Design the sequence.
């Protein structure tokens, strides 16, 4: 026993009744375990822990196993060092009075050397970032038309990033990037834009279709012209061949002693019979020749002969060609 008469914990644990000793040892063991467990703590990778002693900042603990004074020091906060993303939706009006919704994705992180600022200088970083994004977007977009907003997405993202970097650096946050992920105009405006786009595409399609039809028409006309030309040449060659054949036939008949009149009658009769054969040889023909009799051929010959005679009487004879070296006679006055 202590001379002063006060019994210490060790003496109380070894003196007195057995149950008192057991209770005292159990309490001391629990206190020791509690101190042991509260002395060690772990911090995850890419995380920093803020250690305070009686509410006052002491140090920054890094990843891994760390030691603190039990019941005296405590971990007040853990700061995430990973890159995080916050998507802010902003509704504003363009220069041409069109309301649009713009989604801005902000990527931010806390540098290791600025964990203290991030832990103590700003209570709600996401709300602060959202406020700065809204302010930057509503300051930039009303200066541009809707088409310019779509064309200048990069400029808008750079403006948001610059404004955030300047404002959040003092709070311990670094802005990695700012992206304009979506621009959505009002539904009526979107429908009107789609109609304009569809009309433009239809106009282009109509122009292309017209050009194609024009090309086809020109090519068809050229083909038809070439066909007519070739057909005309074929007809002319056919008539030349027929005339040459008739001339040769007449010469042959003349040498055989047949006079020209009889030869002409014979040729016409032969061609007439060939024509009848060609007409009758066609399948499904229903052609009727009136009149059609052996005497009709004679009547046809008489009509052709009269026509030839009338033509010869109406046409003056051609002058004889001049002899070699002689000039053609001058026409009569």
Sequence:
């Amino acid at each position: 026993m202590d001379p002063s008469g006060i019994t210490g914990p060790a003496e109380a644990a070894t003196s007195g009744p057995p149950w008192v000793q057991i209770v005292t040892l159990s309490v001391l063991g629990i206190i020791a375990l509690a101190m042991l467990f509260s002395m060690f703590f772990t911090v995850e990778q890419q995380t920093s822990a803020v250690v305070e002693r009686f509410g006052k900042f002491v140090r920054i603990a890094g990843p891994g196993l760390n030691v603190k004074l039990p019941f005296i020091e405590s971990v007040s906060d853990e700061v995430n060092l990973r890159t995080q993303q916050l998507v802010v939706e902003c509704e504003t009006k363009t220069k041409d009075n069109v309301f649009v919704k713009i989604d801005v994705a902000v990527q931010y992180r806390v540098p290791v050397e600025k964990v203290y600022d991030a832990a103590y200088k700003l209570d709600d970083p996401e709300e602060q970032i959202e406020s700065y994004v809204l302010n930057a977007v509503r300051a930039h977009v009303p200066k541009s038309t809707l088409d310019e907003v779509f064309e200048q997405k990069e400029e808008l993202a750079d403006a948001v990033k610059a404004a955030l970097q300047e404002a959040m650096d003092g709070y311990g946050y670094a802005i990695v990037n700012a992206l304009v992920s979506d621009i959505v105009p009002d539904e009526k405006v979107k429908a009107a834009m789609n109609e304009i786009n569809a009309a433009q595409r239809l106009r282009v399609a109509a122009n292309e279709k017209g050009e194609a039809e024009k090309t086809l028409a020109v090519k068809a006309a050229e083909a038809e012209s070439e066909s007519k030309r070739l057909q005309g040449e074929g007809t002319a060659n056919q008539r030349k061949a027929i005339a040459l054949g008739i001339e040769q036939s007449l010469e042959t008949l003349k040498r055989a002693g047949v006079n020209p009149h009889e030869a002409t009658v014979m040729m016409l009769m032969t061609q007439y019979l060939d024509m009848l054969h060609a007409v009758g040889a066609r399948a499904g023909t229903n052609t009727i020749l009136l009149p059609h009799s052996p005497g009709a051929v004679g009547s046809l010959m008489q009509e052709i002969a009269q026509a030839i005679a009338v033509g010869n009487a109406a046409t003056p004879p051609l002058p004889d060609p001049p002899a070699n070296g002689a000039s053609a006679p001058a026409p009569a006055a």
Remarks:
- The longest strand covers residues 174-185.
